[in-house]
Design brief:
Elements lengths: L4 E6 L5 E7 L2 E8 L3 H5 L4 H23 L8 E7 L3 H18 L3 E5 H7 L15 E6 L4 E6 L5 E6 L5 H11 L6 H9 L22 H17 L3 H32 L3 E5 L6 H14 L2 E3 L3 H4 L4 H12 L19
Parallel strand pairs: 1-4, 4-5, 6-9, 9-10
Antiparallel strand pairs: 1-2, 2-3, 6-7, 7-8
Helix pairs in contact: 2-3, 4-11, 5-6, 5-7, 5-8, 6-8, 7-8, 8-9
This protein binds 5'-O-[(R)-(carboxyoxy)(hydroxy)phosphoryl]adenosine and zinc ion (ZN).
Cofactor: Fe(2+)
Main location: cytoplasm
Family: Belongs to the KAE1 / TsaD family.
Length: 340
C-alpha cells in the first residue's frame, strides 16, 4: 500500500518547526529557532507569534524542497492543536487550513504532549520503537507527566506536576543563578564539572505519582540569597557545584516517581521524551538503572526529544490511517483536551 505523505507544522511555543514524512520516515525536518527570546530571558508570546507569521512561508517552502517532493504529492496537513501559546497555535492552524484549502486535502490537529510520546515511533535508523504497554515520562518546559501508553489511542496520565513543569523549574533556577535562557541546557553544561553532593536541597513530600518543583525553586532562591550576603561572588566561585547539586535534586524527583510507577504498574518498558530528556544526568541515571534492573529504556536523539514537527507528522499518520480528520472550523486551544 502507498505510504501517505504528510506535512506537519509545530508552532506551540517559540520555534517554527516543519516536517514532511512518508509513513513514519522523515523526508525533511526543519526548525526555525527564535533566538530573540534569549535576550528577554524567556519566551515573549507576542514576539513568538510575529516571528511564526514571518517565517512560516519560507520554512514550508524549504521543507518541501528538502523533501524532494512536489506539493501535489502531499496527502494531508497536520498542525499542533494545543496546548501552547494561543497566538502561536493560531498561526500554525490557520496556515495548515489555508494549505488544505489550496491543495484540497484534509487537516489533522495533533495534541502536543501526545506527539512527544509518539515521537518514539519516528523511524530512526538503529532504533526500535517501544512495544505496548509502556510508561512515558514527558519532561519539558510546559509539562511533567508519567503516562501509561496502552496503544496509540489509549494514554492515561498516572501522575503530573501540581505546579511548575521540570523544564520551567530548570529555567527559573538558572535565571536566579544568572544563566541565559533556556537555562536547562546551561545547568546541564556547568553541572558536568561539579559535585552533585556539595549542596543539599530537601525533597518535597508529594504523595502518589504527582510532582512538585516550586518548593525546590524557593529553597534554591533562599539559599543563594543567604550565601550572596556572605560572599557576593558565591555563584561565580561555586557555579559548577551549584548546577550539579540542583540538577541532581530536580532529576532525582523524576527518577523516584518513575521507579514508583514501575513498581505499581509492573511495566518495565519506559520511554523518555521532551526537552529535559536530553539532559545528560537524566540519560546517565536512567541508563544505569535500566541495565541494573533489566528495564527496557527508550531514549530519543536530542533533535526529537525537544520540540519538533516530525513528532506531529508521525502522530498525524496514526489519525490519517483511521481517517480522523478535523473540520476547517477547528479552533486550537491553549489548554486543549487530551482526547485524540
Ligand atoms: O520539549 P521542549 O523543547 O519544549 C516544550 O515543550 O516545553 O522543552 C524545552 C525545555 C526548556 O525548559 C529547556 O530548558 C529544557 O527543555 N531543556 C533542558 C535541556 N535541554 C532542554 N533541561 C535540562 N537539561 C537539558 N540538557
Ligand atoms: Zn514540547
Amino acid at each position: 500500500m502507498k505510504k501517505p505523505i504528510l506535512l506537519a507544522i509545530e508552532s506551540s511555543c517559540d520555534d517554527t518547526a516543519i516536517a514532511i514524512v512518508k509513513g513514519n520516515s522523515i523526508l525533511s525536518n526543519i526548525i526555525g529557532v527564535q533566538h530573540i527570546h534569549n535576550f528577554y530571558g524567556g519566551v515573549n508570546p507576542e514576539i513568538a507569534s510575529r516571528y511564526h507569521q514571518r517565517d512560516i512561508v519560507l520554512l514550508v517552502h524549504q521543507a518541501i524542497f528538502e523533501a524532494n517532493i512536489v506539493k501535489k504529492q502531499i496527502d494531508a496537513v497536520a498542525f499542533t492543536k494545543g496546548p501552547g501559546l494561543i497566538g502561536s497555535l493560531l498561526i500554525g492552524a490557520s496556515f495548515a487550513k489555508s494549505l488544505a484549502i489550496a491543495w484540497m486535502i484534509p487537516i489533522i490537529g495533533v495534541h502536543h504532549i501526545q506527539a512527544h510520546i509518539l515521537s518514539h515511533f519516528i523511524e530512526i535508523e538503529g532504533r526500535s520503537s517501544p512495544k505496548f504497554p509502556f510508561l512515558c515520562l514527558t519532561i519539558s518546559g510546559g509539562h511533567t507527566q508519567i503516562i501509561l501508553v496502552e496503544n496509540f489511542f489509549k494514554m492515561t496520565i498516572l501522575g503530573q506536576t501540581i505546579d511548575d513543569a521540570v523544564g520551567e523549574a530548570f529555567d527559573k533556577i538558572a535565571k536566579i543563578a544568572g544563566l541565559p535562557y533556556p537555562g536547562g541546557i546551561w545547568i546541564d553544561y556547568y553541572a558536568k564539572n561539579g559535585n552533585p553532593k556539595k549542596i543539599f536541597f530537601s525533597k518535597p513530600k508529594i504523595g502518589g505519582l504527582d510532582f512538585s518543583f516550586s518548593g525546590l525553586k524557593t529553597q534554591f532562591f533562599s539559599f543563594i540569597r543567604k550565601e550572596l550576603k556572605k560572599d557576593p561572588k558565591f555563584i561565580i566561585h561555586n557555579l559548577y557545584d551549584i548546577c550539579a547539586s540542583i540538577q541532581k535534586s530536580l532529576i532525582d524527583l523524576l527518577f523516584d516517581k518513575m521507579l514508583l510507577a514501575i513498581r505499581q504498574t509492573k511495566i518495565f518498558s519506559i520511554a523518555l521524551s521532551g526537552g529535559v530528556s536530553s539532559n545528560s544526568y537524566v540519560r546517565t541515571k536512567f541508563s544505569k538503572v535500566a541495565s541494573k534492573k533489566g528495564l527496557k529504556l527508550h531514549l530519543l536523539p536530542v533533535e526529537f526529544a525537544t520540540d519538533n514537527a516530525a513528532m506531529i507528522a508521525v502522530s498525524a499518520q496514526i489519525k490519517y490511517s483511521s481517517a480522523l480528520f478535523d473540520n476547517l472550523d477547528f479552533v486550537p486551544g491553549a489548554n486543549c483536551g487530551w482526547n485524540l
